[in-house]
Automatic annotation (TrEMBL):
Superkingdom to which the source organism belongs: Bacteria
Protein known as: MmcQ/YjbR family DNA-binding protein
Entry-linked InterPro entries: YjbR/MT2646/Rv2570-like
Length: 139
């Protein structure tokens, strides 16, 4: 089957399917997915660092995904055409941002890998090793 464009529903489904995940609701109803008390996918509320450059209107559809390293972050954000980006607010923070309105530019396979990698970057070593071992047994 051909890879299809990713959706916001996919983000929720993939994040929720990872082991030991707790979904929290932020103060403004935004979803936050955590493993071991550490966020790995975070639906941001509108913030001044993510706004339309012409109108100044804050984007209400920004999703933050943790990444393993600065090099992973750069690999996703260095191409200006990429749907992934960062802002100066996240300088030195191991995460990338993507607007829900641009998720269709990402295939479901890539999104799955990104969410799984986000989970791995935040899960305990024991949980990560256990999950990776189970994936090897299934693959």
């Amino acid at each position: 089957m051909a890879d299809r464009p990713a959706t916001v529903g996919d983000v929720h489904r993939i994040a929720a399917a990872m082991p030991h995940v707790k979904r929290l609701e932020g103060p403004k109803g935004n979803s936050i997915y955590q493993v071991g008390g550490k966020s790995f996918v975070f639906f941001r509320t509108p913030q001044p660092d993510c706004a339309d450059p012409d109108s100044g209107e804050r984007w209400a559809d920004v999703i933050m995904l943790w990444v393993e390293s600065e090099s992973d972050k750069l690999a996703l954000t260095q191409d200006p055409a990429s749907p992934f980006f960062s802002t100066s607010h996240f300088d030195g923070h191991p995460s990338v941002l993507v607007r829900a309105s641009r998720l269709a530019e990402i295939g479901l396979t890539e999104l799955t890998e990104l969410v799984q990698d986000a989970w791995l970057s935040r899960a305990s070593n024991r949980r990560a090793a256990s999950w990776l071992a189970a994936q090897g047994a299934q693959g």
